[in-house]
């Protein structure tokens, strides 16, 4: 089943959700993000499937927010942040394992979505990139809490330096749990779901014990929202996005991408 830019199918009792806008590196507009959160909640009860795999089509997992629809007010920024936050919230509320199958580059908000997943399996083409600090944008998805939880002190250089993190380094520092061939990526993610969820009764309980506490996630959302407000009020957001489009206009073949 395909709805907008999200494909949904059931593969061996696992819901495979595929971001499907390859010509634009699977960037996500607000409607796509709302749909993704709704779909995760639909399957996340465990009544229909044993787990969820999230992946992308083509050479990108996702390039994050669709900057062709740039917020023109702080209210629009709040809406953008709220839709990203809610994907994280939806994933962490599920009663079943959620696996990110990182098939290519994951940028900004899309990279951050993977941080709350229960595992991140990548290919050699997987790459993490957090450009926000150099674009006047603020990180979201509770990544201010989740990034350090996964990679400790590496979080500073990843976020402040906007360093691109290739698959081998991502594996070494803990952004990826394993690397597999592109053609076996989704199959391996489905296999992990079945390995982990042999008894849904106890798996759901362990997910609740091992995942971050909801209050920690909500506190991170609040801090990120406040930082986004300050970025907007200082003019950093507008200047950063303006610089982004200046660079894109110098290379018109490059697709819009970011947060």
TrEMBL record:
Gene3D superfamilies (alphabetical): 2-enoyl-CoA Hydratase, Chain A, domain 1 (3.90.226.10)
Which residue spans adopt a coiled-coil conformation according to this UniProt entry? none
Instruction: Provide the family line.
Output: Belongs to the enoyl-CoA hydratase/isomerase family.
Q: Where would one find the signal peptide in this protein?
A: none
**Which named protein is this?**
Enoyl-CoA hydratase/isomerase family protein
A Pfam match: ECH_1
Q: Name the species this protein comes from.
A: Rhodococcus daqingensis
